[in-house]
Design a protein that fits this description.
4 strands, mainly alpha, Herpes Virus-1, about 190 residues, two-stranded antiparallel ribbon, about 5% strand, 7 helices
Length: about 190
């Protein structure tokens, strides 16, 4: 404990009385303005967040260019992080990739992490689902839109193998039956 007067005499920037500030923080205070250090930290975080948002709105091109330059300088680090994320939390990675795909295709998206349930086996082909090591393989789990005309919405997605998803494509069930019937004629 050190009083404000003692802190001034010792040429310190902070002092502590052991009493809480009006917001209940029991911590050091600044000699210059009596302010609680914790209250000032909270105030500065809010200020910086608001300032950052305002600056970004005014300087979108510059901010994007800066982010892109950072990405290009750190591409190996970004790829390493993505690989670790893909391995440790495949559902989160798949959700993020699906959201990005929906945005680029301009289709509806309202999924959450709870909607991405990765089964052990592909429900279509029965093969064991496995994540590829940095690339997509036939047994990789993928998010499929059951009805391709609807977006990535709750109740319209299933996690199936990449192979099953590729075979399914944009064809309808009737079109698949016609293909199967045609293939049966060559037995």
């Amino acid at each position: 404990m050190i009083s404000r007067q003692q802190a001034i005499a010792r040429k310190r920037k902070r002092y502590s009385t052991g009493k809480p500030c009006p917001h209940g923080h029991v911590c050091e205070r600044f000699v210059s303005n009596y302010a609680c250090v914790e209250c000032m930290n909270i105030k500065m975080k809010k200020f910086h967040a608001a300032y950052s948002r305002m600056w970004f709105q005014k300087n979108k091109k510059k901010a994007r260019a800066s982010r892109k330059a950072w990405y290009l300088r750190n591409i190996d680090k970004v790829r390493k992080f993505a690989k670790i994320r893909r391995k440790n939390n495949p559902a989160s990675y798949m959700l993020s990739a699906t959201k990005h795909r929906a945005k680029s295709l301009n289709i509806k998206f309202n999924l959450t992490i709870d909607d991405i349930v990765i089964p052990k086996f592909c429900p279509v082909l029965g093969i064991k689902l496995r994540m590829g090591k940095g690339n997509t393989v036939n047994s990789s789990p993928t998010v499929d839109r059951i009805n391709s005309k609807k977006g990535y919405t709750k109740g319209n997605v299933a996690v199936i193998s990449h192979l099953a998803n590729s075979l399914k494509g944009f064809a309808t069930a009737a079109q698949h039956r016609r293909i199967a019937a045609w293939m049966e004629t060559f037995k």
